[in-house]
Amino acid sequence: MNYHTHGFNLYSIHLYLFPYSYLNNILNCYYYCYYYCYFYCWYLTLYFIVCFLRIGLPKAAILSQIKLLLMSFVHMSMGRTSDEVLYISLPLYHTTGFIGVVGAICLGSTVALRSKFSVSNFWNDCRKYNATAILYIGETLRYLCNTPKSLNDRNHNVKLAIGNGTRPDVWREFLTRFGDIRVIEFYGATESNCSFINYFRKIGAVGRDFFLYKWMNPYAFIKFDVDRGEVVRDSSGFCVKVARGEPGLLVSKITPWAPFIGYMGDMKQTESKRLHNVFKKGDTYFNTGDMFLVDKEGFVYFYDRTGDTFRLIVCVNNVVLQVSTFVTVVLLFYYICSGNEGRAGMAAIALKEGLKFDPTTVFKHVVNLLPVYARPLFIRIQSLSITGTFKHQKGKLTEEEFDPNKISDPLYFLDMKEKDYVPLTVNIYDSLVTGTIKV
């Protein structure tokens, strides 16, 4: 499809904080939104986006018209123009795919829309339709990097990749292999009132902690007790902000300018995302459930999800990066191990094509790079299933636990006496659950 609209220009402002004249583009977006009856459209429901959780039942998040417009205007702020072609191979029931289409309508640009993601046809499609920008989510870029190398890898016109959820190592490999593509990584959730965008090409970052944005949309990174599963409060009962370089839970103040509408027909779930009396009595913040780390330069990095946290503050993503030298995907989750105190972590591993699992090498790698409390006690080798939005399904793996009587996949146990990951036998399992073997 191809839509055309008239462009407009308000200002010509260039600041070093906004390369590629992003401030000019952003001001255009907000000016347009102002004339779109800001307050009215915040609460005028356009449609519902069903959020599929990695663990738990799906929820219907309410998406207002103005929020959809603001999300779609991100494409304008990236300097995209009406003569470009956006290639979308994502499901349109996922917000990233849908706002790509709406953003193209606002720009008057062309969309090349594929019914289903195909790793083998991805670059052929980009060449066929002369795509200049692509969307990605989750593992999309990794799938592209895992394809056999070709002389045509850089034979395309793609200059921009917009999305979220890619790892830094995949990001680097993607640029090295497919050329100087400007990757715009962002963070956001359909129901959230806060988001970040990395305009600066800083690998691994999702955005920057910027005082103007914080003034317009107050947010903070606060201390979170992983073991208790709750925020840390001081003697006065208020939350505590973390220091630079310290991981913290992202919360965003709920205001008329940044509302949290909630979930359709689920007041309990909606209220669970509200955090009250955060910094003063009576204030209310949206609890993203995600933890971030801000470096000394102000760049914001996704650190962990509170539901994925594994004994103290152990970053799941860090474990993934450490072990990804030997495997293609690692999922980390934990169980209550009967007969032992605390929780035991398991890594579900998908091996790279043509490679066999080498427990001794992996043991040395894990012991050398990870502290004791962060080492996966169990390893499960299997082909990992994904959702329709390219996220891994942890729910089933969590439910199956580590019982070799129920699981046919190869299981390994971290045996410090043998200095190796040894096969998890029924005898070892029984010794673990009875407390004969202490971990």
Automatic annotation (TrEMBL):
<keyword id="KW-0472">Membrane</keyword>
<feature type="domain" description="AMP-dependent synthetase/ligase">
    <location>
        <begin position="56"/>
        <end position="197"/>
    </location>
</feature>
<dbReference type="GO" id="GO:0005324">
    <property type="term" value="F:long-chain fatty acid transmembrane transporter activity"/>
</dbReference>
<keyword id="KW-0812">Transmembrane</keyword>
<dbReference type="GO" id="GO:0044539">
    <property type="term" value="P:long-chain fatty acid import into cell"/>
</dbReference>
<dbReference type="GO" id="GO:0005789">
    <property type="term" value="C:endoplasmic reticulum membrane"/>
</dbReference>
<protein>
    <recommendedName>
        <fullName>Long-chain-fatty-acid--CoA ligase</fullName>
    </recommendedName>
</protein>
<keyword id="KW-0436">Ligase</keyword>
<feature type="transmembrane region" description="Helical">
    <location>
        <begin position="33"/>
        <end position="53"/>
    </location>
</feature>
<dbReference type="InterPro" id="IPR000873">
    <property type="entry name" value="AMP-dep_synth/lig_dom"/>
</dbReference>
<comment type="similarity">
    <text>Belongs to the ATP-dependent AMP-binding enzyme family.</text>
</comment>
<feature type="transmembrane region" description="Helical">
    <location>
        <begin position="90"/>
        <end position="113"/>
    </location>
</feature>
<feature type="transmembrane region" description="Helical">
    <location>
        <begin position="312"/>
        <end position="336"/>
    </location>
</feature>
<keyword id="KW-1133">Transmembrane helix</keyword>
<dbReference type="GO" id="GO:0005886">
    <property type="term" value="C:plasma membrane"/>
</dbReference>
<dbReference type="Pfam" id="PF00501">
    <property type="entry name" value="AMP-binding"/>
</dbReference>
<dbReference type="InterPro" id="IPR042099">
    <property type="entry name" value="ANL_N_sf"/>
</dbReference>
<dbReference type="GO" id="GO:0004467">
    <property type="term" value="F:long-chain fatty acid-CoA ligase activity"/>
</dbReference>
